[in-house]
Design brief:
Largest sheet: 9 strands, mixed
Structural class: alpha/beta
Shape: globular
CATH architecture: 3-Layer(aba) Sandwich
Number of helices: 8
Strand order of the largest sheet: 2-1-3-4-11-10-9-6-7
Number of strands: 11
CATH superfamily: Class I glutamine amidotransferase (GATase) domain
Number of domains: 1
Helix content: 25-40%
Length: 294
């Protein structure tokens, strides 16, 4: 009798849980048309303002995302900009985006924005907004957003090494006069998960950093459709960070940033600092960095 009663109670409980999930779900919450719920702390943001967006609908870099967030808050303290972070796509509308100078895609993956949110963001960038995309924000999970995948990022990600996945490689600074590389040495060693792409970024882009493939193993014979990840013998053949401009807006992509450790690198911190200064229009008032892309 007690066993039957327990089964009955369990079934009722499961039914209640199922009903609750049917009435409220993350998908339903994302479809909510209500305004973005600004926290009280956002009332005190000083200029310049940085929006850090970390939503994921594909691979989630569980360690790198909070490490990147902590670093950006620290950079804000050092550089004098304020940071607001969220994973709520409702902030991507014309009125709310107008509050910010720079948006950082902190290992964003998949398709976290609706079509309307994407349109509002594109208009904001082209009107003068700055975008910094980090690591996973340049992988192949963004193909459903053609403007971002092809016009912003450019080349399609094809894979990263395995066995070992994280490797130390020599990074060459290929655009030493660009404001986004200010403060970086001519080359440096860095440990990360190294992305390979189908091609170089193409016309309009300035390649900031390249990889010396002779200093690590660009191959993955364990999983994935592409095993040989070599892009070329010279660092210029294997871009890993680049910049470009859209209308009045500026953009930088950094393939660095897979792990928490990657954000502890002094050179990576300097790259992110100089990139934010440039895309936030704190440096290069004459847009020389835009014209360099041809």
């Amino acid at each position: 009798m007690d066993g039957k009663r327990g089964l009955l109670m369990d079934s009722r409980l499961l039914g209640a849980v199922a009903l609750g999930l049917a009435l409220w779900s993350p998908a339903a919450a994302m479809d909510d048309a209500s305004a973005y719920p600004w926290p009280r702390s956002a009332e005190y943001l000083s200029e310049p303002r940085i929006l850090v967006f970390s939503a994921t609908r594909d691979w989630r870099h569980e360690e790198a995302i909070p490490a990147g967030m902590s670093l950006l808050i620290e950079l804000g303290r050092r550089e004098g900009f304020s940071v607001h972070s969220t994973e709520d796509g409702r902030i991507f509308n014309a009125d709310d985006l107008a509050r910010f100078d720079v948006v950082v895609f902190n290992n964003v993956t998949g398709a976290p924005l609706t079509d309307d949110q994407r349109s509002a963001f594109r208009a904001w960038v082209e009107a003068g907004g700055g975008l910094l995309s980090i690591h996973g924000a340049g992988d192949d999970s963004h193909k459903a957003w053609p403007w971002y995948q092809r016009s912003v990022i450019g080349p399609l990600f094809i894979g990263h090494p395995a066995d070992p996945q994280l490797q130390t490689a020599r990074v060459e600074v290929l655009a030493q006069s660009h404001p986004a590389t200010e403060g970086l040495p001519q080359s440096f060693e860095h440990k990360d998960e190294w992305y390979s792409f189908e091609r170089k970024p193409g016309p309009g882009a300035v390649v900031l950093l390249g990889l010396a493939e002779s200093t690590y193993k660009p191959e993955n014979y364990i999983y994935g459709p592409v095993s040989d990840l070599r892009m070329g013998d010279q660092p210029a053949d294997h871009p890993i960070a680049w910049a470009r401009c859209f209308g009045e807006g500026r953009f930088v992509y950094s393939g660095l940033g897979h792990s928490a450790e990657a954000f502890g690198s002094a050179q990576h911190q300097q790259l992110l600092t100089s990139a934010i200064r440039w895309i936030g229009e704190k440096t290069d008032p004459d847009n020389e960095g835009c014209r360099a892309g041809g």
